Amino acid sequence: MKKNEILTGVVLDESMELTVDELCQSCSVRRETIVSMVEEGILTPVSRTDVTYRFTGVNVKRAIRATRLQRDLELNLPGVALALDLIEEIDRLRERLRKIG
Amino acid sequence: MQFKDYYKTLGVDKNATQDEIKKAYRRLARKYHPDVSKETDAEEQFKAVGEAYEVLKDPEKRAAYDQLGSQWQAGQEFRPPPDWDAGFEFSGGEASAFSDFFESLFGRGQSGGSRSAYGFDGRGSDHHAKVLIDLEDAYAGTARQITLQAPYVDESGHIRTRERTLNVRVPKGVISGQHIRLAGQGDPGAGGGRAGDLYLEVQFRTHKLYRAEGRDVYVDVPVAPWELALGSKIRVPTPEGRVVVAVPPSSRQGDKLRLAGRGIPGKKRGDLFVTLRVVLPPADSEKARHMYEQMKQEMDFDPRQNLGV
Asked: ipTM of this model?
């Protein structure tokens, strides 16, 4: 690689859509895991009009976090779903608290 | 290299049962998990706990370690005695970044095993890293230099790590928590397989003025009581520079003024919310005290009228 080359990546935001396979790849899990995460409400697909799900980029963060929690703490998926909701809620509250306190 | 007391790390007794070790590990793993914990050194603590557990959960490794451990203290300068592990057999563990101490005893294990994706034959594994930026950078975009530890196999077949430095563009409009995918910047693929990708999670540094929620940005602005009561034009800082904001008369403490479109850019641009915070002038001069005195006399104001006292 050239010395001062600046790499440009793709931002995984609301405006970009990923297929199930791409999402699998981003967090190194099997298809079935992604499907169970959808069933558990951890991930929210944009639509399911055709045969397969599509996800916005923001789901990548949740999927990666969910995978880590599941692996590191040996949680089951309902446990992961609960933990994620609570973590996000706490993040929001902490952020507010930070400004007040 | 320093000797590590794995029992101390997990806070268990040397005679702890496997069950007690597991319990202690679970408790500490929850406490220090980087996704859960906000403690600054959570990630290191979590790794240390994981490493201790990796040894103590495995009866063979534990027995070998115990044999050593009786002669050493935590932090002591350590060199493994020759043939220390004779008579023990280890199966390769998970390859994550364990300490030199661990590696000198148990080796590195098979690299990448825990990370490689299922069903992508020969494809290199993906890497994940975090990149910290300032909120202002999200308005303008920026470039960041990132240093990664990249494992590779040397000529003799050993797995080593080397540092790899990348310059990465952080585009305008990213928000905290978003990932940037850099195709082909992960591990090289095996047997002609495609290289893995690098995922960068963007995080905003804590800012002394601003707070972001999604694309909306919040700022607290101190105002004098009369600026609120009578209305005024005040100067307000924004990540793009100073603006003048009109405070309407009869505003109240905590009121939010919305500056449309002054949040973080994007397809749907965020707004900037200015929260008004009253600051009372101190009664630290004769004149100031006199004016408070005058307000007390002349204003018909009971701040506790709703308390029923």
From this structure: 0.71
